[in-house]
Amino acid sequence: MKRKLALTAAVLALLLNIGCQNQSNPSQSGGKSTELSQVSTEPVTLKLYVAQGFFAQEDFEANFVEPMKKKYPHITLEMVSGKLQDMITSGDVPDILIAGLPGVPALQDLQIIEDLNPYIKKFALDLSKYEPVTIESIKKFGEKGEMVALPFRMNIPALFYNKDIFERFGVAYPKEGMTWEETIDLARKLTRNDGGVQYLGLYAGGADRFAMGLTLPYVKKQTNEAVLTTDSWAKVLNLHKMMYDIPGYVVDGKLSSNSHTVFVKDQKVAMAGYWGTDVIGEIDKLVKSGQDLHWDMVTLPTFEKGKGYAWQAETHNMFVTATSKHKDQAFQVISHVAGEEVQKIINKSGRIPVLKKTEEMKKEFGADLEFLKGKNTNAFFTLQPGIHEHTKYDLKGRSLIVEAGNDMILKGIDVNTALRNAQEKLNQYIKEQAAAQ
After folding, report:
1. CB-CB contact of 296 with 8 (8 Å)
2. What are the record keywords, sorted (predicted)?
3. Whole-prediction pTM value?
4. What b/e readout covers 151-187, taking b as 16+ CB neighbours within 10 angstroms?
5. pLDDT of 30
6. Stretches in the chain below the pLDDT threshold 50
7. 4, 37, 139, 303: least surrounded by Cβ within 10 Å?
8. Domain 2-155+314-382 fold
9. What is the DSSP string of 194-254?
């Protein structure tokens, strides 16, 4: 255990921040009411671990603490942070963990995740009420049919745009259903130095972000071999280079430091293709500080017209730890957060719920946020996310793809060489990790 802990500690700290078998109808299970009556209602405090920056204290209060006071007043929740590996070493493991999908392999390596299938059956939780992509993405981690987590909110990207910059340069706003090439062509018209201010047409993250629209694998899971030297990966890196070849994106031999936060705070980036939860969160902070942004959004661009995904599925998930002494109560907490009552709260707060999207839910999305009124929030619900099969080597793969993309731009390396270098480095990394276990 200590050996595994040492191997995964650094990876885990990063991943948590990013980042089955069919169920029979549990409501027909015999003895369910008897089982539920045996769940203790004695006062209990459950520790919930959230990696720093994953969500704000106010989200924890609104989505976890307050709903539990009404539903399960005997359950008190305490949010803890810090280094999870230190908690494991000390034996003080939280009852509930919050992590994104990229963080699951590292948690599995630590062997601290409880299989939720028995609790789903015991508490008659109907998984068919959730967006299928959220459940299928989690099931991908269950090699023997385990259900390792429940989702509580989705992160779906969109193309956000600054109306003032478009109007300043007399360029028409972006449209729904654009391709990346069309969007980059639009970015060329908006990337210019005006009055001593450098404006950039588009922020879309590194090459790894573009790849999410094709849900490309970094590693073949069955053989643990890198799969980066493909035509699809070449398409991704060439597209990434196309954007950064626009004059203004590389200054003094360095890539411009544009980001989704620059889009919101500095307001010098015309368009930002990024996760909705992150951008809306930044706009919310901006508005609360007394500032404003003249903006709207459309669907995230795709590689082909009328085809593609809203990147790969990314859900924020809740895990019950195998070491918890209060697993039943922990499951009651996470299933309530994933239930209709709390999901409505999440939806109205401008965060994307995991339940199937009804027309009523779409209309009520962001209802508690004044700055979302009149915005094209349907952009979040038009494209479906794709399902990506995560491995514990993806984080390294992503960093190598970003490096490969940057080498093409800054060092003039051709795409085939860049990908071959990345593939060799990733395979070497996989071998080193295997040897160290």
Report:
1. no
2. Signal
3. 0.89
4. bbbbbbbbbbbbeebbeeeeeeebeeebbbeebbebb
5. 40
6. 1-11, 13-15, 17-33
7. 37
8. D-Maltodextrin-Binding Protein; domain 2 (3.40.190)
9. ETTEEEEEEE--SHHHHHGGGT--SEETTTTEE---SHHHHHHHHHHHHHHTSTTSEETTE
CA 170 to chain centre: 34
Contact, 52 vs 17, CB < 8 A? yes
Q: Among all chains, which residue has been given the structure tokens 């259900």?
A: 147
Sequence ranges of the domains in the chain: 2-155+314-382, 157-310+391-436
* pLDDT recorded at residue 166: 99
Please tell me the distance from the alpha carbon of residue 312 to that of residue 243, in angstroms, as a whole number: 21
Question: What is the CATH T-level fold of the domain 157-310+391-436, as seen in this structure?
Answer: D-Maltodextrin-Binding Protein; domain 2 (3.40.190)
How does DSSP assign 151-207, residue by residue? EEEE--EEEEEEHHHHHHTT-PPP-TT-BHHHHHHHHHHH-EEETTEEEEEEE--SH
Task: Give SS3 for 79.
Answer: strand
Q: In the block, which residue shows the tokens 């001593």?
A: 196
H or E segment to which residue 84 belongs: helix 84-90
* The pLDDT of residue 258: 60
Q: Residue 87 in 3-state DSSP?
A: helix
The length of the chain is 437
- Side chain identity at residue 376, one-letter code: N
Tell me the per-residue pLDDT of 327-369, one tens digit each, with 9 for 90 and over: 999 999 999 999 999 999 999 999 999 999 999 999 999 999 9
Same fold, 2-155+314-382 and 157-310+391-436: yes
Sheet arrangement for strand 75-80: 75-80, 44-50, 96-100, 315-320, 150-154
Name the amino acid, one letter, at 279: V
- H helix runs in 266-308, sequence order: 276-288
Q: For residues 136 and 263, give the distance between their C-alpha atoms in angstroms, rounded to a whole number.
A: 33
User: CA 39 to CA 382: how far, in whole Å?
Assistant: 41
